[in-house]
Design brief:
Blueprint lengths: L5 H19 L2 H24 L6 E4 L10 E4 L1 H24 L9 H17 L3 H19 L5 H32 L4 H9 L5 H17 L9 H7 L2 H27 L3 H23 L4 H21 L3 H32 L15 H14 L6 H15 L3 H26 L15 H16 L6 H16 L1 H8 L2
Antiparallel strand pairs: 1-2
Helix pairs in contact: 1-2, 1-4, 2-3, 3-4, 3-10, 3-13, 3-17, 3-18, 4-5, 4-10, 5-6, 5-10, 6-8, 6-9, 7-19, 8-10, 9-10, 9-12, 10-12, 10-13, 11-12, 11-16, 12-13, 12-15, 12-16, 13-14, 13-15, 13-17, 13-18, 14-16, 14-17, 15-16
C-alpha cells in the first residue's frame, strides 16, 4: 500500500516542479521539459494503477492510524477508477503536446492538468470525508481555470457558471460533513459507516444524505443540476473536454456518490432517488442532443444522457445492474474521451465546431474520421463495441429485476444517441468535401496516436467481460459497491 500516496504526491509535486521549470528555463527548453515530464508522470501513474487490481488495503499517512490520522484506501472500486482516470489522462496529455501549441499561455496548462489529476486520484483513494472534500476542491478549482483557459468571453462565462455551481456543491458537501462530525465526532468514512449501521437513521442523517446527493448530482451533471456542463465542455480545450466528460464528472459525481452513499450510509434509501434521476437524465440529455449544431455541445449533452444510464444501472442495486453501470462508466470514459479528441482534431485543422461548416473530412483526415466512426458506433451501442455490451447488461438487469419500463428508457436513450451521432458522421465526415478544406492534412502523430489508442480500446474492452478477467477487474468493484462491511473491515481491524 506504500504506492498509494504517490498517486497524489507525484502529480501534485509535478505541478509545482513544472511551475519552477517554467520560471528557470528559456521558452523552447521550458516547453520541452514541461511536455516530457508531464507525460512521463501521467504514464507512470497509469502503469502503476494496472498493478493494483486484485489488491486491497489501507495506508495510514504519517503512520497515524485512523480515525485520528488520514488514510488512503484501496479496494476493487478504487482500483478500477484509478486505472480509468489515469488512462484517460495519459491519452489527453499525449494529445495536448501538439494541440496546446494554439494557446499562448500553455506554460500554465500542464501544471493545472496535473493538479486536476492529483485531485481526482485523491478523491478515489481518500478514506476521510474532509480530505475527500479537499481533493474535490483541488480538482474542481483546476478544472475551473482550464475551462476558461482560452480567456475569450464565452470561455470565461462558462468557467464562471461552472464555478458558481461547483461552489454551491462544495458548500453542501462541507455542511454535510459538519453534520456528520457533530453527531459522531470522527471524519473517517469507515468509522462513520460503522456508527450509522449501529444507530437510528434520524433526520440529521437523512438531511446530510440529501445534501450529499444534491452536491454530487451537481458535480456529476445529473438533470436538473446539469446547466453548467453544456457550456463548460465546448469552451474548454479539447483534451480538457475529454477529461471533464471522460473522468471528472464520474470521479467527483458518480464515484463520490457511490463511495459516500453506498459505503458510508448504505444504499437502501439511495436507490429510489437514483433511479428516477437516472431516467430523467437519460431522456433530457438525449432530446437536447438532437438539436445541437455545435459538435462539442452535442457531445456534452450526450455525456449527460450516458451519465443517466450509468446511474440507472447502479440504482438497480443488483450485482448485474452494478456491473453494467460500472462497465458503462469505463466504456463511456473511453469512447466519449475519443469523441472529444476527434472534435479537437477537427478544430485544430478547420477552426470550427459547427457541423454545417464541415463535410467530407474523411477524405483528408482518415485517422480522425475512422476513429470517430468507431467511437460513434460505440456510444450508440452497436456491436461489437464496448458500448453495446455495457448497455445490453443494463437492459437485461432492468428486465431481470422486474423493471421492463426502465429497460425501455435505456433503449430510448440509445436510439436518441444513435440518431445524434449518425448526424455527426453524415455532416462532418461523409458527403462532399468543401473546396476550402481540400488542402488540409491529418493532425500530427501524437494527436493521431492518442485517438488510435482509445479506438483500439473501444474494440478491446469487451474482453474484460471474460470470466477470468472479470473476476480480477470488474467483480471486485461490484463487491466493493454492494458490501460496505468489507470497506469497514479494511480500516477497522
Amino acid at each position: 500500500m506504500n504506492i498509494l500516496p504517490y498517486f497524489v504526491l507525484l502529480p501534485l509535486g509535478g505541478a509545482f516542479l513544472l511551475t519552477m521549470l517554467n520560471a528557470l528555463f528559456k521558452k523552447d527548453i521550458r516547453f520541452t521539459f514541461t511536455e516530457v515530464l508531464a507525460n512521463l508522470i501521467v504514464f507512470s501513474l497509469f502503469m502503476s494503477s494496472l498493478f493494483l487490481f486484485g489488491k486491497t488495503g489501507s495506508y495510514a499517512v504519517g503512520g497515524w492510524p485512523p480515525p485520528l490520522g488520514i488514510n488512503f484506501l484501496l479496494d476493487g472500486l478504487s482500483a478500477l477508477m484509478l486505472s480509468v482516470v489515469n488512462l484517460i489522462a495519459f491519452s489527453a496529455i499525449l494529445f495536448s503536446v501538439n494541440y496546446m501549441k494554439q494557446y499562448t499561455a500553455r506554460r500554465y496548462y500542464y501544471s493545472l492538468f496535473l493538479l486536476m489529476l492529483a485531485g481526482m486520484n485523491g478523491v478515489i483513494l481518500s478514506g476521510d470525508l474532509f480530505n475527500l472534500f479537499v481533493f474535490i476542491e483541488i480538482a474542481s478549482i483546476a478544472s475551473y481555470a482550464l475551462v476558461g483557459f482560452g480567456t475569450e468571453a464565452e470561455e470565461l462565462e462558462a468557467s464562471f457558471k461552472y464555478m458558481v455551481m461547483g461552489g454551491i456543491a462544495s458548500t453542501f458537501i462541507l455542511l454535510s460533513i459538519a453534520f456528520l462530525y457533530s453527531q459522531f465526532g470522527v471524519l473517517n468514512m469507515a468509522y462513520i459507516s460503522k456508527a450509522i449501521s449501529e444507530t437510528d437513521f434520524n433526520y440529521l442523517l437523512k438531511f446530510s444524505l440529501f445534501l450529499f446527493i444534491t452536491a454530487f448530482s451537481i458535480k456529476g451533471a445529473f438533470v436538473p443540476f446539469h446547466a453548467w456542463l453544456p457550456d463548460a465542455h465546448p469552451s474548454a480545450p479539447a483534451p480538457i473536454s475529454a477529461m471533464l466528460s471522460g473522468v471528472l464528472i464520474k470521479t467527483l459525481g458518480i464515484y463520490a456518490l457511490l463511495r459516500v452513499g453506498f459505503s458510508v450510509y448504505g444504499y437502501g434509501e439511495l436507490l429510489y432517488i437514483m433511479r428516477y434521476l437516472g431516467i430523467i437524465t437519460i431522456v433530457v440529455g438525449g432530446l437536447m442532443m438532437l438539436k445541437q449544431d455545435d459538435i462539442k455541445r452535442l457531445m456534452a449533452y450526450s455525456s449527460i444522457s450516458n451519465v443517466g444510464l450509468i446511474i440507472l444501472g447502479i440504482s438497480l442495486g443488483t450485482p448485474l445492474g452494478i456491473l453494467g453501470g460500472l462497465f458503462h462508466l469505463l466504456s463511456h470514459s473511453i469512447f466519449k474521451s475519443l469523441l472529444f479528441l476527434n472534435s479537437g482534431a477537427i478544430f485544430y485543422r478547420i477552426k470550427t465546431r459547427s457541423l454545417r461548416d464541415m463535410g467530407g473530412l474523411n477524405k483528408v483526415m482518415p485517422v480522425t474520421g475512422g476513429t470517430s466512426l468507431i467511437a460513434s458506433l460505440s456510444i450508440s451501442g452497436l456491436p461489437p463495441f464496448n458500448g453495446f455490451f455495457s448497455k445490453l447488461i443494463i437492459i437485461i438487469a432492468c428486465i431481470q429485476d422486474g423493471h421492463p419500463g426502465f429497460a425501455f428508457w435505456a433503449i430510448l436513450g440509445s436510439i436518441l444517441t444513435l440518431s445524434a451521432f449518425m448526424k455527426v458522421q453524415k455532416m462532418a465526415f461523409f458527403g462532399a468535401l468543401k473546396e476550402k478544406y481540400a488542402q488540409i492534412k491529418e493532425v500530427p502523430f501524437l494527436m493521431s496516436l492518442s485517438m488510435i489508442i482509445l479506438a483500439v480500446l473501444c474494440i478491446a474492452t469487451p474482453l474484460l467481460l471474460l470470466p477470468q478477467i472479470k473476476d480480477v477487474i470488474l467483480t471486485p468493484a461490484v463487491d466493493a459497491v454492494l458490501n460496505a462491511e468489507n470497506y469497514i473491515a479494511l480500516v477497522i481491524k
